[in-house]
Amino acid sequence: MQLGLTGLWSIELRTADPGEVTDAAAELDELGWGALWIPGLGGGDILGDSERLLRATRATKVAVGVLSIWRHQAIQMAAGHARLQGEYGRRLLLGLGVSDPATAQSAGQSYRPLTNMSAYLDTLDQAPTPVPVGERVMAALGPKMTQLAAHRTAGVHPFMVTPEYSAAAREQLGDGPLLAPYQAVVLESDPGKARAAARDFLGAFLAMEHYARSLLRQGFTEQDLAAGGSDRLIDSVVAWGDVEAIGNRVHAHHQAGADHVCLHVVGSGSAMPLTQWRELAVLTH
Questions:
Q1: Any idea where the domains of the chain sit in the sequence?
Q2: Which among 60, 126, 124 has a CA at the least distance from the CA of 95?
Q3: Does the predicted TM-score (pTM) go above 0.90?
Q4: 177: how many CB neighbours lie within 10 A of its CB?
């Protein structure tokens, strides 16, 4: 599935007023964004929210980035995915994540990430209408999960990573598999304001063990993870400044081997950051 060079990752496209979401998606389609990514959040009707975006757009792909395998039954996802692909022209990419031990425990399951994800993929393969390998991705961060994604899905959609991570992931994936990193962006040139906005969003993730491990593997220290993130960490995983500065970060990911970069506007202070999305649309080509 061809996603284009850049896409938008947006919480608002799941949570805002449905009419506003429809209007925004139609405009983003016209602006040429390759894909609209929506998060799994705490569950909910991810297929219904995906369909709203598919219905409002003509060419833009819709990607789930990502649903928790503990909150959505694989057989139901396969059936819903098949229906939406049939109705909207195979424009839906299903993103899968293993979440964390607490989420697995809340579902009454033991947490064995590789085994759990493999079993979920098995169910997608064995469904009455299977989800094709090329229409699903994984939120892989570690090397073993990345290897699984390379063999059993279209590729990976990693969260909170640097261009250097993209280079290492591409080396491991080899040619072919999709590499579509998430990239938080702040359209603000004042360093203090930009970093504060970044910490407001990302700070909570730094306390989550699986994300902390990923950042430590990327070369950051425990000190970098403290107090909402050091300036070094924030500047490395968040692109801030004007459109040119953000474009430079996107280019760095592409130069490192990324196929597609999903931009998440944070710190906009608005319920639907259309102004920023419009400004950033120059990065779609």
A1: 6-183+256-284
A2: 124
A3: yes
A4: 19
